[in-house]
Amino acid sequence: MSLSADLCLRMYRDMWRIRVFEEEASRQTGLGTVQGALHMYCGEEAVAVGVCANLRPDDYLLGTHRSHGHCLAKGAEMDRMMAELFGKAEGSCGGKGGSMHIADLSLNILGANGIVAGGIGPATGTGLATKIRGTDQVSVCFFGDGASARGTFHEGLLFGSLWKLPVIYVCENNQYQQWVARKNVAVVDSVADMAASYAMPGVSVDGQDVTAVYAAAGEAVERARSGGGPTLIEARTYRFHGHSLGDRQEYRSEAEVEHWRQNRDPIKLLAAYMRERQWLGDREDAEIQSAVNAEVEASVAYAHGCTDPSPEAVTADVLDTAWRVTQ
Ligand SMILES: Cc1ncc(C[n+]2csc(CCOP(=O)(O)OP(=O)(O)O)c2C)c(N)n1
Ligand SMILES: [Mg+2]
Known about the structure:
Helix content is about 45%, strand content about 10%.
């Protein structure tokens, strides 16, 4: 399939936005302005960007604990995301969600979450809801390879397939599950093969190649929108950083990480693809990167100018189930 220069440039810029945002978030954690666990998505940007380039603002998105990239790719505002990491009232979730719970209901981003496979059930639910309502929205759920070992994954795929729901299940197979290599704990190599058990199409793509991800997701989104049911996409990818900040990474070699950074960086690969076609020159490249750097710097300035949540806000938006049960 052929992609336009405009689309590639947009995806290139979006991958840079994720990369620089996260590097800054990591720096801010070191400075103490951002608190809590931070799971870096660097190296995996082509998955979020290639999938989300096929989505409309009203499509649903469910994420993982490693979701800054998913949210930015779907259109979440960078300023409010940085403010959220700073724990500020103007943040995407009023400063109470932090890195692992960023949501933006105005874009149907129903949230990152800290429970492995936690998004698969809700994404199947939004798929059911849109089918009942008769809209043509699709639901996308990102999850890691580790999530494919959880019951929720199997339940979600079963009902997604049984009811022919408009859901795209996107597994980011980065070959590691916290501090364990997938090859030491999995009995099938490709997560895409598991789709056969649920009678749905399963596709495995090179997750470092945004053009391949874009094409595979495009087919899946079209099938879902036109009533053809769900698809399981496995994107083979790699995280450049440890599981979360501070991980000593004793389970993998520096040489392996260096190999992926040098030869399999999705940003470098797209740059080479565009340069070959003369869609990207030195000047455009420098302009894109400096605009992204400025946007990220501005988000930090914005977050610094925000206010702390008021103590009274602590119980707002909290469902008091005990109260409900006794009423
Ligand atoms: C139900 C559950 N079990 C365990 C954990 C602890 N945990 C957090 S991330 C993670 C590994 C997830 O691996 P994967 O799904 O491959 O995602 P990745 O971190 O590689 O993106 C684990 C075990 C958790 N958060 N939730
Ligand atoms: Mg993983």
